[in-house]
Amino acid sequence: MSASTDLKDGHGARTERGGEYGMIRRRRTKALIAAVEGPALGGGFEIVLACDLVVASTSAYFGLPQGLRGVLPTPGALFRAARCLPRNVATRMMLTGEPLTPRAALALGLVNEVTEPGRAVEEAVELAGLVCRSAPTSVTQILRAQQELDAEEDACGWQATAAAVEVVLASEDMREGAAAFFEKRPPQWPTR
């Protein structure tokens, strides 16, 4: 379960090799499999979007509620969500904050397997075993080729994200969204 970065503390920790949360921008030669139990919201969902394969239990759900707080999904979801989901579904998630169920995520191709609660890790390990049956060189080259194909789109996505962040950071909406969250009240958007 991951409910993103604390609004008070800012973005997830970055590492030189992996970027946000230590893995959002990491170039890998081994498959990264997400095992999701419970909510994967905000940055938690952005970690899922950075993975190669996804196993989710029926207790999981996925969401990008940042707009409800006057902020943006900055660690890649602005462009990766529309790569992993139909654009209108990704846009609706970002604009409304409404979550996606694991069954819907499976039907849309985001999730590879849906399990009973408590079995996502076990199923992810089984899926890893299937990947391990393939030749290591083949796995490495498949992942490298996919990353190379996404590299130009990612570069444009990171630039667009940085430009959007500048605007949001200077907005009254961001301050109101955070204040409303901490005061446990609906936001009163000043720019409305």
Describe this structure in words.
This protein has 192 residues and is mainly alpha-helical. The chain has one domain (14-182): 2-enoyl-CoA Hydratase, Chain A, domain 1 (Alpha-Beta Complex). It contains 7 helices and 7 strands; from the N terminus they run ββββαββαααβααα. The protein has helices at 43-49, 77-84, 87-96, 102-107, 120-132, 136-169, 172-182; strands spanning 14-15, 19-20, 33-36, 39-41, 53-57, 61-63, 113-115. The strands form 3 sheets. It has a 3-stranded parallel sheet with strand order 3-5-7. Strands 1-2 form a two-stranded antiparallel sheet. A hairpin with a 3-residue loop joins strand 1 and strand 2. Helix 2 packs across helix 3. The two termini are 34 Å apart. 29% of the residues are buried. The model has no long low-confidence stretch (mean pLDDT 89).
Name of the CATH first level: Alpha Beta
The gyration radius over C-alpha positions equals: 17 Å
Number of DSSP helical runs: 7
Strand order of the largest sheet: 3-5-7
Structural class: mainly alpha
**At CATH's second level, what is the architecture?**
Alpha-Beta Complex
Q: What's the CATH topology name?
A: 2-enoyl-CoA Hydratase, Chain A, domain 1
